[in-house]
Amino acid sequence: MSFNTFGHLYRVTTWGESHGRAIGCVVDGCPPGIEFTLEEIQHFLDKRKPGQSKFTTQRKEDDAVEILSGVLASETDPNLLTTTGTPISMVIWNKDQRSKDYSEIKERYRPGHADLTYDAKYGIRDYRGGGRSSARETATRVAAGAIARKIIPDVKIRGALVQIGDRIIDRDRWDWANVEKNDFFCPDAKMAEEWAEYLTAVRKAGSSVGAVIEIVAENVPAGLGAPIYAKLDQEIASGLMSINAVKGVEIGNGFEAARLSGEENADEIRMGNDGQPMFLSNNAGGILGGISSGQPVVVRFAVKPTSSILTPRKSIDASGAEIDVVTKGRHDPCVGIRAVPIGEAMVACAIADHFLMHRGQTGRV
Predict the structure, then answer these.
(1) Of 275, 327, 277, 273, residue with least CA distance to 115
(2) How many Cβ atoms from other residues are within 10 Å of residue 106's Cβ?
(3) What is the pLDDT of residues 241-279, one digit of tens each?
(4) What is the model's pTM?
(5) How far is CA 259 from each of CA 195, 255, 262, rounded to the nearest angstrom?
(6) Which DSSP symbol is given to 109?
(7) Which of 292, 291, 304, 183 lies closest to 249 in space, CA to CA?
(8) Contacts for 49-52: CB closer than 8 Å, 24+ residues apart
(9) pLDDT digits (tens, 9 = 90+) for 183-204
């Protein structure tokens, strides 16, 4: 299997399977001299790890990261690590695999999953939790994203869940402080309460629903990206589309822009009191012509409902026989919840990568 690497200068290669001994990643291209602690990396992994509420899979994993290379520990503070410029290798050991849960679907293709397409491409598939196609792989992206944030410390990247099923937040009630106060990364405290009741019913029914996540990156310097084949929005969208179950990405107004007039959609410009250009709106989502404008980068992505459900679904097995499939095991009733820190990580990696390319090309930051 090829194509396990993303990025240009800040390159991340992930490895491992959901039910293998471990998962991990190698970060290549991180500049030397960047200081961080293991706790700073673990902070973001803890946001993504399973089993933290009844609304996510009950698989119990510590997701404790170990760094095997690419750093030096401080002689005065062993918790303080400094990058050396060499590849940073990180590993997360799997501890709570229950492969027997998947024995019944060893020869069966689960609708909505990659079972059929993996067999079509490789002639073999890891039926134990989906192998490489499992969202378990994304934990290593979160670790890589945490280091990426240290390359761009002035850029503030935050994510929130803005829709579950057909229930959408009220943006007039948006409060970033609420994101840390509920199980859904929801900025709308009232909607978080409604989601809890709604998703409890979905979970008890053995069903699932989709979600929409919004990521906002503030203090992104103007000039990151390229006009044609390395557009900043293109690379952000590519990174987000590579996340399991993601079926759509939009930047700024996105699809909403299609129904606006040119007058409504254009972000008018004036000079600010600081002598810098000031935009009167941000319909473009902070990116114009593939290059950051200096405004907040705003991106949303849609996650489909979890395909693993208890309701029988029509399918076939490896011999071609028609069957009904019920997927047992521990599954998220809404995978969009844990996708929030993953989306943040992919946006951080893309912006850090373009920050390094911009510095290399222009000598400016």
Answers:
(1) 327
(2) 13
(3) 999 999 999 999 999 999 999 999 999 999 999 998 999
(4) 0.93
(5) 29, 8, 10
(6) P
(7) 304
(8) 49/139, 50/330, 50/332, 50/338, 52/183
(9) 999 999 999 999 999 999 998 8
